TrEMBL record:
One BP term from GO: adenylate cyclase-activating G protein-coupled receptor signaling pathway
One Pfam family of this chain: 7tm_1
Domain G-protein coupled receptors family 1 profile: 84-346
Residues spanning the membrane: 72-91, 103-131, 151-172, 193-213, 238-267, 288-308, 328-348
Name of the protein in its database record: G-protein coupled receptor GRL101
Keyword Nucleotide-binding found: no
UniProt KW keywords: Leucine-rich repeat, Membrane, Receptor, Repeat, Signal, Transmembrane, Transmembrane helix
Chief place of localization: membrane
Annotated signal sequence range: 1-15
Taxonomic superkingdom: Eukaryota
Amino acid sequence: MVVTFLVLKVTPARLAHNTVTDGTPIPCASINTICATTVLARGENLPAHQCEAEEQPLSTCEDLIGDFLKRVMLWIVAISAVFGNIIALGYRILFERTTLHLTYVLFVTCLGVSDLLMGIYLVIIASVDVVYRGVFIVYEHSWKQSTLCQIAGTFATLSSETSTFFILLITLERFLTIRFPFGEHKISNLVKYIVISFAWCLGFFLSIVPLMYPEMSLYATSETCLAFPLRKSSGTAWIYSVTVFLFLNSILFVVIAIGQFLIFITISQHSSKFKTGSQASARRADNITVALKLSVVVLSNFICWFPVCVMGIRTVVSDYEVTRETYGWIIALVLPINSALNPVFYTLPQVSKSWTDFKRRKSSQFSRSQNP
């Protein structure tokens, strides 16, 4: 039996029906299996049920995103994340410029930039799926080794890590503001710029480490260029991925959960004091309103990320295995969904409030003009 690799000449028909001479099954998916092959002999077709392959979370021989529903959801999340965060950032820069100096506003703005990077990553993956539709396996290896895949993986890692950092900083800032409403303990102007710079630098460093050490090939291990480890493996790249995405993020989310718990405890302890009409009570009530709105952002990220981290840790320390279907939905929807939801949570209420205030002012001006 003679096997010839026809990397540039394989047609979709050949991908669907590899040919054999003796009925021996030929694997048809995965970078390490024979997929784009033709066996030169009698030219008998291999039945689809005999095609053996290592299943990938999302891709098939034909498509990068093999499931139609996942493909649709990926596009929805990608477009929502890109346009939602652009609109949110534009609104804050154009209409809320006077509040950009506030610590929590800066943290939320940086979170928006981080979410925008995830949206760009999703657009790249969804677009590549369109470009290679029907013949993905022919280009699978070159795609994983391409510069665009490395950039996409860097964006995804940078986004996931910095978003976690900024959620932690938002939690810390809100706790200090509510616990010490008169500013006895707060994040100073100098400190806020230092921690923002540190968060971006650390996220950037963690995302480019796999590029600095080619032997790791972390982003090239997945067709989606995503380094998140939900399958047990070995090697330097896998160890690095487990350390960063599972253990570091899990520790950060535990701290975030503790911070949110302390915030709600503080709110419940001082809720009875808000009934007074003092200026201090009004200030604290405003801070709590902001904290509750931002808590929705924090908790939504926590709800999505923390269970995934737990599944990943179980995979590392035991024989637990995440199913292909679950893995696919985690990659396509669960991990990136907050990038689309966050701008809705932290910007839409503010836009609604601004619009209400605008209509109230217009109504008041109209009333005064009618009654000079």
